[in-house]
Amino acid sequence: MLIAHLYTELKAKNHVPADASLLQRAVQAALHEVRGTYGIAVICKDEPDTLVAARKGSPLIVGVGDGEYVVASDAAAIIEYTKGVYLNDNEMVVMRPGSFRTVTIDDIQITPVISQLEHTIEAYELGDYEHYMLKEIFEQPTSVRNCLRGRVEQREGRIVLGGISNFARELIRARRFIMTAQGTAWHAGLFGDYIMEDFAKVVTECTYASEFRYRNPIVEEETVLIAISQSGETADTLAALREAKEKGALCLGIINVVGSTIARETDTGIYLHAGPEIGVASTKAFTCQCVVLTMLALFIARRKNMSQAQHQEVIDGLCAIPDQMQQVLATTSQIKDIAAQFCERENWLFLGRGYHYPIALEGALKLKEISYIHAEGMPAAEMKHGPIALINEGMPVVFLATRGVQYEKVISNIEEVRARGGKIIAVATEGDTNIRRYSDHVVYVPHVLEPLQPLLTVLPLQLLAYHCAVARGCNVDKPRNLAKSVTVE
After folding, report:
1. CA distance 421 to 12
2. Does the predicted model carry a pTM greater than 0.90?
3. 3 state DSSP class of 128
4. β-strands 176-181, 223-229: how paired?
């Protein structure tokens, strides 16, 4: 609306040249006056055969079809009909019947790069599933296989990451890694923090992108920033990336959407190959982000300090994950019954230690996002430092209690919750009968190396959130107040 008024004002004051490209000139003049982000398409009754579109900060793609042009904010809307031209910030496209051209808002001609969009229309269809979120949960064995394909050579015991090969030396010599993201991607980054320090033995921190640039961050020499985003358009993550580049960091992107803004602005990166994710609550992108971060940590660790035997052990474990995911997803009926029992409870806790702390956060977020139940995720030991006061009779508390170095400590935390009337829902390792003594419900996952356990234990939490939301009559794919990609601050 602001641009429309500005156009009218400029035209009335004769600030816009009266030539054949009046609409284009008017939009350019208006965009020089505005501040902030935008992704716009403009038509005018004075030039009914012209459509002008421009972007800054918000995603915009031009679909090039057979004698037609389409403007959209996401490839999913146009993939059935067109190839695509991705616009960069401060660029615009002028479309007329039979032709289009791209220019900057300063009227500098740009040669467009027309590319085939990555997926097929079938990838965007719901199929036999009730919701996209459920479809995407059950697609995770396939998405992880696609993520691993061509990158893990199991027989040779090698990780091959072609997208970052030109920067291998800088990554190996890096003295510090900064993971930055928002929401679910931030939880993946926190997992990456753990696994990078564990495997590659390099100082790593995970920071919210929305806080990064406002705290005057210290970016030292040989610092690598890793920007994580499903869409590649997250405004806060993009701003953090630009701040880090300004301070001299090498910037790497872990992105799902090919051609997205973050993918284009990072120095190098790794695509997820998770396939399109339609449901607002991210599921398969999260597990693929964790897989990519695991591969990256292995890639660096093997070149620094990790033995071939340990490297091979983790690679073998990674390659087994898709089939093990399939086993976990087969527990959906059991999880649906658990959800039916507790879905009316308005307060939940999700607790885990070590690698499972990020998963506790993610489980709580999923429940909040789609079922509108208040939930908190935290390290299990933190519960004693205040949150234990929240526990009352019948309160559901989800424990990530797989076999690992802190298993006995988790059991101790479970006993503390039970003593205060909490109902225990445990995610445990297959064959662990001991856990049944302490839990009201147990969901089992296959045995796997401890650093890889989150790839399996997150699945029951996704299903639990989904079944709770359905039982409460919530709109699973379009939860209130949320958007798939947050492109404004």
Report:
1. 72
2. no
3. coil
4. parallel
